Automatic annotation (TrEMBL):
SMART domains: IG (SM00409), IGc2 (SM00408). This is JAM2 protein. Residues 3-103 form the Ig-like domain. The keyword Membrane applies. PROSITE patterns: IG_LIKE. GO terms for biological process: leukocyte cell-cell adhesion. It is a single-pass type I membrane protein. It is found in: Cell junction, Tight junction; Cell membrane. InterPro entries: Ig-like_dom, Ig-like_dom_sf, Ig-like_fold, Ig_sub, Ig_sub2, JAM2. It comes from Eurystomus gularis. SUPFAM superfamilies: Immunoglobulin.
Length: 103
């Protein structure tokens, strides 16, 4: 079954230095969807190891299975427009509407 349009939870504002979690979920896809987050239209990289993440200055953890995007300490650089995409290899992938997070 192709995925449904996912529901995205993105806080509209966050305080610098706080922990912020964005979530994305859809329940109709079978097999279960994987989720990809985008910021300002660019796919976010999945954190693979401490070395590469530090080099890229990545401050978040993206879980493609659960759809969460977790910022341990948000910075002003994390301000932007976020959306996620659900895909399971069947039918078209589905995106939620873009939501802006101001830090």
């Amino acid at each position: 079954v192709a995925p449904a349009t996912p529901v995205c939870e993105v806080p509209s504002s966050a305080m610098t230095g706080t922990v912020v979690e964005l979530s994305c979920k859809e329940t109709e896809g079978s097999p279960p969807s994987e989720y990809q987050w985008y910021k300002n239209g660019v796919a976010l990289l999945e954190k693979t190891g401490a070395g590469s993440a530090r080099a890229a200055n990545i401050t978040y953890t993206m879980n493609k299975k659960s759809g969460t995007l977790l910022f341990n300490t948000v910075t002003k650089n994390d301000t932007g427009e976020y959306f996620c995409e659900a895909s399971n290899g069947i039918g078209l992938s589905q995106k939620c509407s873009v939501k802006r997070m101001q830090v």
